[in-house]
Amino acid sequence: MVFSSPIFLFLFLPVTLLLTLLTHKYKFRNLTLLILSMFFYAFGEGELILLMFGSITINYFIGLWIGRVNSKFPLVVGVIVNIGALVIYKYLGFIIYNLNEVLSLFFHYQLPNVKIKLPVGISFYTFQILSYLIDVYRRKNEPQKSYIDLALYISLFPQLIAGPIVRYKDVAMQIVHRKLNSHLFQIGLERFIIGLGKKMIIANVMAMAADVAFGVESSMLSAPAAWFGIICYSLQLYFDFSGYSDMAIGLGKMLGFDFLENFRFPYTSRSIREFWQRWHISLSNWFRDYLYIPLGGNQKGKGRTFFNLYTVFFLTGLWHGTSWNFVLWGLGHGTLMVIERVGFGKLLLKIPPIFQHVYTLLSVVLLWVFFRAETLPDAIGYFNALFNFNGNGHYTFAVISDNEIITFFIIGLILSVNGFNRAIKKIFVLTIRNKSNRAPIRSIFRMSRTIFLLMVLFYSGMIIATGSYNPFIYFRF
Amino acid sequence: MKTKINISLFFAYSFVLSNVIVDQLHLSTIWNYSISFLVAFVGTLIFKAKIKDFSLNKSLLIFTFLIFIFLPLVGKKEITSLENRTLAPMPEWRWSNIWKFFFQYQSYFEDRFAYRNEMIAGINRIKINIFHKSAMSDLVAIGDNGWFFMAKKDYIMATSAIYTEAQLDTIVFNLELVTKYFASKNIKYYFMMLPVKARIYPEHMLSLQLLEMTNSKMDQIYERLKKNQIIKSIDCKQELIDGKKVRDTYYQTDTHWNMFGAFLGYKKLMPLLQSDFPNLTAYNENDFVVDSIMLYDGNLQKMLGFTNMFQMKHFSFKFKNSNEPITITLNILDYPNAQFTESQMPHSGNNLKLFLVRDSFSELLKIFLVPTFNTSVLAWTPNIPVTAVLQESPDLVVHEMLELFSDNLLKLPPEILADQDFINEYMRNRNK
Q: Which residues of chain A lie closer than 8 angstroms to B306, CB-CB?
């Protein structure tokens, strides 16, 4: 089930809010939330919920085992079990395909290909489980003795299928003791509506142009259309992903949980390094704390640092999907990180900020081509279109755009760099300056904000009701 | 003051919500309002105790949100589909079916939640007014000057994909075989494929959709049929394009041709039929009183949730002589999913019997075609009902088919396919 579906908005969410408010004792509340989270997953994934249940059960016992003994062995078992499940369900087909490609060079023998349905969210909940087990091993938190509470941490529906990757230590207290009040509910609701609007009003509209640009043969695409398409895709990805995170954080607050931020205006970054401090923060932090630093981080010489960076970005790419395009995307970012570390980063600081932004945005946007294109030849074809090696295509800017796409393209560009918030704050400050009685102006601003949010809610809700174009981009994660 | 507004807001929302819920009990109006009032009143008293925690902004946001998400859950379920399709049924709960149940229930709920159609109409109204675009642009595309077009991906594929040479060979072979099969039973077979609206009004289409629909399956088939001497086919695309100079030939907010378009199709068909049946008399435009009126109608408009937002021009062709055919419905048991009707026209001036294999486009074509024949049997079915044709023993079969369904021609009717002796003999003769 996704947040942007009628069954979530008009059935699951009202029932969840009702039942959560009716149950006061935390144990009942957790059990209720767990059952609801299971329904949430079962509605989208059916029998794959059994896999998640199995994973929860095994990891419950492994967690207790790690807590009882002073040995690395149970942690190794836990890591093998979880990474093993991830490899089988997510990467086995990819591995066999590539092995067959290699085998075909030398032998006639081919391994039988397997088709396994990818459980949505497996990458997210596997990383959450691993963080739990590693933190128990590092004695950063106690093993969870309550099966229900651990199951709730892993399967909690707001962050189950698209993150953010919540670490156990960040929510351990909230699982057993959390506040539910109208103030938090209001803050959470505002955040949820903003996220819903980002997804339904901006991301989905940007997807229309991006999908046409990436859906036609690249030789049919004119250079302006190709640039427009990739910028639309960059906006789609940001508003979809950050919108989903906003909805998760908002829903969490409405239910009494406090999740960490996952995006902080990444397109305002001045370097790739900064970009990764602002983009999918929970994933970057996970890789930093559970892979980069254990590998030695930047403490073991330059060569080792570069190797560690490449390893992290290779795996970051692979985490996003089973295709060499994702690996290339990851390695592209890894290479830029290395280049910034060998001196380019210092050089960047000396040039005007506008050029820093141009360098970062251009790099990020061009690397998204690998992320979006289905295959490597598709990505190369798209680069050809971007730099007009194809001549004039039939699919021009005018063909792939329309009034709505252009309107939300401009709005998206402004919002992606925090322009709207800054402008509103500036207007507010200018309006109340030199005013002795500021209360009425403050009230007007607040009321305008509420009405604006309600308009976003109605507009998004009505789009959801149409059941029209609503891509789900996390199915590969 | 703020407190009073806050309480009024809460009372109004509680009243609306409880009213929608109580409405499900089908009580009399007075009971309905009394219970709703009571619930809202008690709720407001409880809320009053907590009012300190609620600013006006907070109340407005939270209560509006709650009513927005609860109303579709508790209101009356939708029973009609805007897309003219059967709504998903409530799935049966069985332990053996448990995983499928979740998927099926989702389809059921998402088809039927309350106020769905109103919300669809609302968002389409907003988007059309602001962006001149439907909110379901993957279903209905809004072109220039109020011309609507079907924009479903599978519709575009079904009309605009490129056939392989082998597929075209199969289609021609199948049509030849059908022609010969009916000829062997003394029945003449005529094939008439009709173009989708996009072929006649490309000037009103969005350039993106125009590019997606560049190839026409109908054009590919007719290009191949030009070389064929056996199949008697009628292509009225050019007449429908030329006819636009006189009147529109398709409806603006519907996928179908209008009555003038149907008349042009009839006019193109009749000379071919008359060459085989000289005693057939075709109607001319002079035989009709032609009027035009503006109607709030159209299947494409309805898909967007509208009933009276856009008008389309409707031409009515009324016979000057009010000779109405007598029509009865036939039940032919072999074809439970097909609709059969038989019409008699005693004053047609011939004894010919027509069997029309039709789709929705013949709804208007039949107005001209049926009175032309003494007897007409109309079968609304995607495939030729060969057994029914043989049972009715007509003089001729007219097979009208929209370009959208052209892939049906890749398969032979099962009755002909089962007649292997006939196919073998035909193959022998063909190879000679």
A: none
Q: What is the pTM of this model?
A: 0.88
User: Which domain, by its residues, includes A143?
Assistant: 6-178
Min Cα distance B98 → chain A (Å) is 8
Q: Do A468 and B57 touch (CB under 8 A)?
A: no
Nearest CA in chain B to A49: B99
- pLDDT per position in chain A (477 positions), as tens? 889 999 999 999 999 999 988 887 778 889 999 999 999 998 888 888 999 999 999 999 999 999 898 889 999 999 999 999 999 999 998 999 989 988 888 888 888 888 888 888 899 999 999 999 999 999 988 999 999 999 999 999 998 888 789 999 888 888 888 888 888 999 999 999 999 999 999 999 999 999 999 999 888 899 999 999 999 999 999 999 999 999 999 999 999 999 999 999 999 999 999 999 999 999 999 999 999 999 988 888 888 999 999 999 999 999 998 899 999 999 999 999 999 998 888 888 889 999 999 999 999 999 999 999 999 999 999 999 998 766 678 898 989 999 999 999 999 999 998 767 777 777 777 777 777 777 777 788 888 888 999 999 999 999 999 887 777 777 666
Residue at A473 is within a domain: no
**Are residues A115 and A167 part of one domain?**
yes
Total number of domains in chain A = 2
Contacts of B58 in chain A (CB under 8 A): 182-183, 186
Determine, yes or no, domain membership for A426: no
Q: C-alpha angle with apex A60: A57 to A66, nearest 5 degrees?
A: 140
In a domain, A77, yes or no: yes
Residue A1 lies in a domain: no
Residues from chain B contacting residue A459 (CB–CB below 8 Å): 123, 126
Q: Catalytic residue at A333? A: no
Does one domain contain both A210 and A322?
A: yes
CB-based burial of residue B85 (10 Å sphere; 0-12 exposed, 13-18 middle, 19+ buried)?
A: exposed
Distance of CA A394 to the CA centre of its chain: 34
Q: Find the catalytic residue in A24, A183, A280, A320.
A: A320
- What is the ipTM metric for this complex? 0.90
Q: Could you tell me if A192 and A106 lie in one domain?
A: no
Q: Residues A199, A6: contact at Cβ < 8 Å?
A: no
Residues A237 and A145 occupy one common structural domain: no
Between CA B377 and CA B382, with CA B381 as vertex, the angle to 5 degrees is 135
> Which candidate from A11, A13, A450 shows the least CB-CB separation from B60?
A450
Between CA A42 and CA A50 the distance in angstroms is: 9
